[in-house]
């Protein structure tokens, strides 16, 4: 593949690779791989459903098993299809996971026994240089005895007998994995999720309607086909997080955790249980993120659903950037851009001036500008204003526009303090502040944005009056 200028620079950037040893879970569809993944990471990160083929992209997480720390990869169910089909592209993701793993954990359904696809996977794994640990899932009770006996024909020795759903067989799994993982890698230092420093990874989630190009954009950033893409709507189901190191145009490195999410359709159109789970997972990813990029298809423009997604992001207190994808093929570009800006101004009353960036996931154009804007908006989202600067702004704002006097009684605002960051939150103390009109609150917030450098990030403002010592209710 011939690389363009942006793509060549992007692909040359160093990825942040896990320092822990890697275990890749592989097997045919619906044998319990995602259930085991969730068990090992101790969280319900991967979507789990009774139907086969729920997992599509490979998902990674940090696992802890009886004192053994490792990186675990959940893969799509291995199916023998043409590489151009969706199942075929899923299989390529599984093959990539095995290639980077220290050991492959080959899971089969003991109750169903060994089927031809299990044998096909076994033949493929034997051709790989990656060591294999065979595990019989759903082996509780006696129903899986025949399947365990049949598995000896696969050539990987006695399987680990376990139940991912009930947590049985954990000790045996530890014994089987230990020889392949011991002495490899090193534990990564734990990060305090509540502490912030400019050197902490930028948690950047990409959200939007189906087929906006979210996965394609992340693949272009990484310079590799890390996520499955294609013309089919709704390919992405799980929210997938990928650690990355982005080098900006000044040559400075920035750690980034990229989060891909499932397409979010209008709620009334979402009837399927699995799609509901995918959308809920995407909304959870918004909660986890610091900056959220709402990706729009420039050939379709801004729709009501996009505004609903943007409003949800801002309600959650996350910094928002809007990116117009497929800009390289958009028609009437200037009027489209101005129309989107006006629609955002009208539709997002709580935040004015949201940054809009034009990008092309196909060519890579605009990616550096998008990431640069994300770094800047996170800085504003994380900003803390000193007491002196805060008070000087407060005095200027009140002098320029004094608060009203409803019923002839003055509202006295005594002082303001910043109580938290991420998003920036403030409390104003005074008398009768409960009578302050919403329009005046908006004036104060807009003044903060302009004069204190918060820009178009969510700003929380609350009002408090001192407790009345003569109030008998206290």
UniProtKB/TrEMBL annotation:
Belongs to the TRAFAC class TrmE-Era-EngA-EngB-Septin-like GTPase superfamily. EngA (Der) GTPase family. HAMAP family: GTPase_Der. GTPase that plays an essential role in the late steps of ribosome biogenesis. Pfam families: KH_dom-like, MMR_HSR1. The gene is der. GO terms for biological process: ribosome biogenesis. Associates with the 50S ribosomal subunit. Keywords: GTP-binding, Nucleotide-binding, Repeat, Ribosome biogenesis. GTP 2 binds at residues 208-215, 260-264, 325-328. Gene3D superfamilies: 3.30.300.20, P-loop containing nucleotide triphosphate hydrolases. It comes from Sphingomonas rubra. It comes from the Bacteria. This is GTPase Der. GTP 1 binds at residues 27-34, 74-78, 137-140. InterPro entries: AAA+_ATPase, G_ENGA, GTP-bd, GTPase_Der, KH_dom-like, KH_dom-like_a/b, P-loop_NTPase, Small_GTP-bd. CDD domains: EngA1 (cd01894), EngA2 (cd01895). Residues 21-185, 202-382 form the EngA-type G domain. The lineage of its organism: Bacteria, Pseudomonadati, Pseudomonadota, Alphaproteobacteria, Sphingomonadales. One of its GO terms (molecular function) is GTP binding.
């Amino acid at each position: 593949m011939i690389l363009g200028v942006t793509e060549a620079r992007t692909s040359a950037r160093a990825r942040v690779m896990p320092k822990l040893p890697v275990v890749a879970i592989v097997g045919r569809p619906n044998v319990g791989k995602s259930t085991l993944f969730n068990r090992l990471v101790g969280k319900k990160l991967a979507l789990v459903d009774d139907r086969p083929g729920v997992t599509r992209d490979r998902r990674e997480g940090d696992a802890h098993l009886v004192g053994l720390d490792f990186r675990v990869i959940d893969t799509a169910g291995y199916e023998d299809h043409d590489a151009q089909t969706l199942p075929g592209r899923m299989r390529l993701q599984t093959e990539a996971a095995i290639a980077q793993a220290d050991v492959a954990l080959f899971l089969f359904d003991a109750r169903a026994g060994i089927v031809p696809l299990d044998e096909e996977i076994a033949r493929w794994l034997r051709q790989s240089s990656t060591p294999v640990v065979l595990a019989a899932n759903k082996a509780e009770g006696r129903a899986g005895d025949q399947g365990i006996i049949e598995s000896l024909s696969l050539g990987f020795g006695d399987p680990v007998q376990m139940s991912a759903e009930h947590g049985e067989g954990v000790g045996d799994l530890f014994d089987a994995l230990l020889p392949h993982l011991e002495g490899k890698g090193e534990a990564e230092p734990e990060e305090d999720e509540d502490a912030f420093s400019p050197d902490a990874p930028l948690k950047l989630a990409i959200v939007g309607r189906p087929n906006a190009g979210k996965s394609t954009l992340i693949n272009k950033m990484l310079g590799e086909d890390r996520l499955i893409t294609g013309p089919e709507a709704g390919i992405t189901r799980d929210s997938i997080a990928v650690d990355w190191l982005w080098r900006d145009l000044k040559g400075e490195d920035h750690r980034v955790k990229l989060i891909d999410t499932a397409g979010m359709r209008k709620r009334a159109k979402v009837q399927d249980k699995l799609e509901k789970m995918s959308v809920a997972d995407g909304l959870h990813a918004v909660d986890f993120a610091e900056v959220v990029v709402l990706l729009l298809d420039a050939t379709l423009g801004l729709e009501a659903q996009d505004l609903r997604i943007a409003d949800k992001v801002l309600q959650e207190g996350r910094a928002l950037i809007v990116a117009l994808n497929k800009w390289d093929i958009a028609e009437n570009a200037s009027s489209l851009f101005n129309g989107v800006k006006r629609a955002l101004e009208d539709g997002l009353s709580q935040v004015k001036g949201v940054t809009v960036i034009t990008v092309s996931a196909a060519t890579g154009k605009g990616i550096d500008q998008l990431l640069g804007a994300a770094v800047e908006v996170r800085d504003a989202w994380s900003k803390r204003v000193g007491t002196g600067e805060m008070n000087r702004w407060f005095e200027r704002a009140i002098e320029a526009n004094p608060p009203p006097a409803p019923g002839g009684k003055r509202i006295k605002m005594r002082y303001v303090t910043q109580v938290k960051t991420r998003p920036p939150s403030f409390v104003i103390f005074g008398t009768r502040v409960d009578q302050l009109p919403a329009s005046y609150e908006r004036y104060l917030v807009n003044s903060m944005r302009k004069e204190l450098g918060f820009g178009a990030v969510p700003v929380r403002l609350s009002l408090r009056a001192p407790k009345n010592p003569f109030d008998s209710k206290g």
